[in-house]
Amino acid sequence: MRKIIHLDMDCFYAAIEMRESPELVGKPIAVGGGESRGVICTCNYEARKYGIHSAMPGFMARKRYPQLIFLPVRFDLYRKESKAIHAILRDYTDQIEPLSLDEAYLDVSSASDYAWNIAKKIRARIAAERGLTASAGIAPNKMLAKIASDWKKPNGQFAILPEQVKEFMISLPIQKIWGVGPKSAERLMTCGIHTCGDLQRFTLIEIAQQFGKWGEELFHLCRGEDDRAVDPHWIRKSLSNEKTFSNNLISLQQCLRELGPLVTEMLEDLKKQNRLVRKAFVKIKFADFTQTTKEKICVEPTLDLYQELLREAYARKKIPVRLLGAGVRFIEEEKRQLNFF
């Protein structure tokens, strides 16, 4: 039986800023989003009381709470803090899979201590040594551990024991399942499926007929079954660079001019990766906040290729553009090895 911990820092960027500037404690703050077209990276719990959340455009946050304090993003500081926290985690296990700067999975199956105690010790050390709080979820697998870490936020922990999984899953909202996003949740709800218990009433064949290959995965996930291992050698699947513009780009020519520097910077970063490219892609967010992506299989992406992708993506709407992005998707290691043979 595996013992998995999902550790999630509480409003990480905002918490660091409040630690660095104690006068901000108790005041609604947002990191990022201060520019006229900016987007919020994260906000503290005081700001969330007003309906403000990450990925919200700054102008919308201002409408909800005009006194909101906007702070600039300081990624160098956040990366440094993340490294310090991961150093603490390594004192308890080397089976760590980082998901981002502020969250990670830990497999403590081989530890002699209870996972609950290990999570408590880690959180206490982070509070004492780094002046920050973290929440933790403990469960037999990754999906359940991540769900559990949300249960007692902020600054708490929650465990789902193996013998509790069956009962826990029955009333769990379908949106909580790993891989179920807003669109797939809406699709499930149109079929009368609102909870995992609802989905459990279908047989494997019935779910597969309705949802294809994904249905087989859903059949197991809605029962709390997830066999994904904690992977300490996780490798990023893509690399990209994007920019939200202060003023909308009103023509294809403007978009093409702005694309050049984005691609140049991204290709410079790509040289440091030592990875094989599978696809190149361009991302556009239009002025009406709809989004489109155009991609193409390639080995060596060039500016000419990105310009071609941009023309095709832009032609889908031909309206002013709010955001442009360019990136690559890497060949996964397993596929690389198969190609050799």
Q: Outline the low-pLDDT stretches.
A: 334-341
Proportion of residues in β-strands = 15-25%
The name CATH uses for the topology of the largest domain is: Alpha-Beta Plaits
Shape: globular
Q: Provide the succession of SSEs.
A: EHEEHHEHEEHEHEHHHHHEHEEHEH
CATH architecture of the largest domain: 2-Layer Sandwich
The helix/strand class is alpha+beta
Taking the sheet with the most strands, its summary is: 5 strands, mixed
The chain-level mean pLDDT equals 91
CATH superfamily of the largest domain: Reverse transcriptase/Diguanylate cyclase domain
Q: Give the terminus-to-terminus CA distance.
A: 36 Å
Number of strands: 12
Taking all Cα atoms into account, the compactness measure Rg is 22 Å
Share of helix among residues?
25-40%
Number of domains: 3
